[in-house]
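R.M. (postdoc): so does anyone remember the format we settled on? I'll just put the structure tokens first.
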């Protein structure tokens, strides 16, 4: 699917708070990713806590665990949707999380929640986050498919008892389950005898602190092997004005073959700020 074809999913996403795009990637891509992550799932302990669950395994840093993860993160249709949803409130989007999740038999239904509640800022003026869940195994209502509460992005309930009935995002590998950070959702209970695996790739406003500490997940020794687009999404880019800099410059300077020992600061300002400061400099140059 081309980036131009993303317009219909965007409309549904903004109207209902979620959309499911079938067959966005070949199932073979997800199978290869699943195979790469299999030993990591096997070695990862169960989580601890009533939110993360006691029968669920989670781990991040997917871009250094499998070459297949880049195809999910940089999917052009998804990036077009993320830009459409988030672009009006930031200069650039960033990767918020790249996490794998395995729900084991016996896990209970997750508490319904909005992911944008991880940030304490005022809500309602714009979206903070777009999440995309990519199933690694088929999602069914019985095995814990993500439960989504349509319309809750527009009318958030004050009491969980007022949520009504969710939809179960049932779909096979290759499909993309997209939902807004303002949409109430949660993993379903796994009532089967098999694990349910999926990957969540999240994109947030570029000026927010991301959920996953990107610079620890992908230090320069790892990120210098990324494409420039992927490195920028993974934190190696400034968000004007001057946010996320390293010694006053874009942190992508750390990805070169040689990093200078001493680095001079360079403005990275928005056009309106550049114009204001240029006028300020002109006035002061004219003064005696």
């Amino acid at each position: 699917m081309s980036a131009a074809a993303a317009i219909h999913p965007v409309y549904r996403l903004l109207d209902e708070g979620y959309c499911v795009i079938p067959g966005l990637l070949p199932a073979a891509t997800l199978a290869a990713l699943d195979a790469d992550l299999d030993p990591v799932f096997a070695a990862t302990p169960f989580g601890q806590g009533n939110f993360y669950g006691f029968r669920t395994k989670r781990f991040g840093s997917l871009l250094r665990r499998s070459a297949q993860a880049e195809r999910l993160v940089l999917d052009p249709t998804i990036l077009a949707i993320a830009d459409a949803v988030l672009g009006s409130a930031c200069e650039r989007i960033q990767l918020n999380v790249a996490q794998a999740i395995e729900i084991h038999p016996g896990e209970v239904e997750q508490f319904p929640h909005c992911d944008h509640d991880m940030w304490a800022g005022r809500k309602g003026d714009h979206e903070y986050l777009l999440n995309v869940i990519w199933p690694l195994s088929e999602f069914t209502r019985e095995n814990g498919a993500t439960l989504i509460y349509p319309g809750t992005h527009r009318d958030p309930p004050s009491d969980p008892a007022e949520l009504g009935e969710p939809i179960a995002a049932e779909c096979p590998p290759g499909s993309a389950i997209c939902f807004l950070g303002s949409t109430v959702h949660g993993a379903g209970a796994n009532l089967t005898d098999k694990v349910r695996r999926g990957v969540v790739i999240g994109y947030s406003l570029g000026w927010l602190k991301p959920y996953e500490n990107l610079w620890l997940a992908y230090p320069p020794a790892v990120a210098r092997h990324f494409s420039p687009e992927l490195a920028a999404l993974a934190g190696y880019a400034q968000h004007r004005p001057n946010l996320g800099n390293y010694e006053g410059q874009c942190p992508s300077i750390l990805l070169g073959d040689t990093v200078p020992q001493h680095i001079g600061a360079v403005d990275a300002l928005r056009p309106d700020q550049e114009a204001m400061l240029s006028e300020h400099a002109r006035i002061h140059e004219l003064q005696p």
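R.M.: ...and that's the designed sequence above, right after the tokens. Also worth knowing: The CA atoms of residues 55 and 107 lie 5 Å apart. The helical segments are 7-16, 27-43, 69-73, 76-86, 214-217, 220-223, 228-233, 271-286.
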